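hey so i finally got around to running the thing on that chain from the lab meeting. sorry it took forever, my laptop kept dying and i had to restart like 3 times. anyway pasting the input first so we r on the same page abt which one it is
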Amino acid sequence: MSSHPQFLFDFGSPNAFLSHEAIPAIEKRTGVKFDYIPVLLGGIFKATNNKSPAETLAGVKNKREFHALETARFVKRFGVKPYTMNPFFPVNTLNLMRAAVAAQLEGVFEKYVEAAFHHMWVEPKKMDDPEIAAKALASSGLDAAKLLARSQEPEVKAKLIENTQAAVERGAFGSPTFFVGKEMFFGKEQLREVEEMVSGK
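ok and heres what got predicted. didnt touch it at all, straight out
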């Protein structure tokens, strides 16, 4: 049995959301929990000279259509609900990701992750607007004021930078990225291979 698989995520990625939706069933099948690691996708892009799919797919004949087909296959294979495109995309997730680190310190990480993904991709909102984000997180039963205040603490900011830099050093260039030991997998489509490796197949 392999060590715990790691899921490096940013709430700004719809593919990270779909991966998050698929992970519980994988955990149930394998008996292995995923470790969620918040990273800043913008920071990874900057460090690796990468761009979002919205930019890389633009103007390429058939590529966007295939991406949609691939997503439809994933949704069917893993039995998850498709995301609702956020009308405010791309959303600056800096404070949301910092608040994820704060949620780890406050012991409400899982609840926070569920809420933030929900308000980004199920009932999408402009989550880089502090007032809208606070209201949305509070509606999900979180102490939004405390989390958003803690997100501005130096140690919280430093931890997110550390996570992001470590991800790049290990080979990450986007989100979702998965690690099983030293083996890296990129993209939601790789979850099948992650599950196979974790299962020892």
